[in-house]
Write a structure and sequence with these properties.
The protein is an alpha/beta fold. It has ten helices and eight strands. Helix 2 packs across helix 3.
């Protein structure tokens, strides 16, 4: 059901102009972050997003389908141009009564406003080494908040280690997370409670009352699901 929302929400694509590989990766990444939040939150109303690229766009489209009681989307980026572009995307692709706020990710007061009282943080952009998201910042969110960290390329280190130590962590595959996810950067042993597949079956519902963290590195089956959708839509 979830991959089909790429078409159902009207985010249509001209086949001849489609970069298929990028679209598959962007789509499955954004959707995965939204699904993890769905499995590990209770009735979220406020979403915070770091980043304004193609992956956050796909996350927003998925969030539109998965979260029926959204009241507010906040996002933070580096540049005013990206804020203007993403704001227009949100205006065009979300409900009219949804509150939208844009912030500068490198202004500490803006980051406080971004995170304060948020139910979900979707993080999908690299941060400078001295601008990592700290545990004190995460504590501004609700106590039962969820974080989806979608920068698992093995190069980025966007969260202070204590954020992971204080979270219940789920992953796609444990070896992938420890080798190329945010977990790659930790210096102490941190327990993983399980996988997103297990979360989809309700195995971790008891963790919805505390801070959770999805350390995403991707799964081949997700790529196949989106590729199948594209082939079915545009080649038939």
């Amino acid at each position: 059901m979830i991959p089909s929302l790429l078409i159902e929400k009207g985010f249509d694509i001209e086949w001849k102009q489609l970069d298929v590989g990028d679209y598959i990766v962007n789509s499955r990444t954004g959707i995965a972050g939204a699904l993890a939040a769905k499995y590990l939150t209770q009735n979220p109303k406020v979403i915070a997003i770091i980043g304004a690229g193609n992956v956050p766009e796909q996350f927003v489209l998925a969030a539109n389908v998965l979260f029926k009681n959204l009241e507010e989307i906040r996002f933070a980026t580096r540049s005013s141009d990206s804020r203007e572009r993403f704001r227009k995307f949100l205006d065009d692709n979300t409900a009219e009564n949804l509150r939208i706020f844009a912030y500068d990710v490198y202004k500490m007061e803006d980051r406080r406003k971004l995170l304060e009282g948020a139910d979900i943080l979707f993080e999908a952009a690299p941060l400078d080494p001295d601008k990592k998201i700290t545990y004190d910042e995460i504590r501004l969110m609700r106590p039962d908040a969820h974080i989806s960290s979608m920068t698992g390329d093995g190069k980025q280190d966007n969260f202070e280690e204590r954020v992971l130590k204080e979270s219940a962590i789920i992953v796609d595959i444990e070896s992938g997370a420890r080798n190329s996810g945010q977990l790659k950067n930790v210096k102490s042993e941190i327990k993983i409670i399980g996988t997103i597949g297990e979360a989809s079956k309700g195995k971790f519902d008891q963790y919805k009352s505390r801070l959770t963290f999805y350390d995403s590195t991707g799964m081949g089956i997700s790529d196949l699901a989106v590729a199948k959708l594209i082939v079915g839509k545009y080649l038939n």
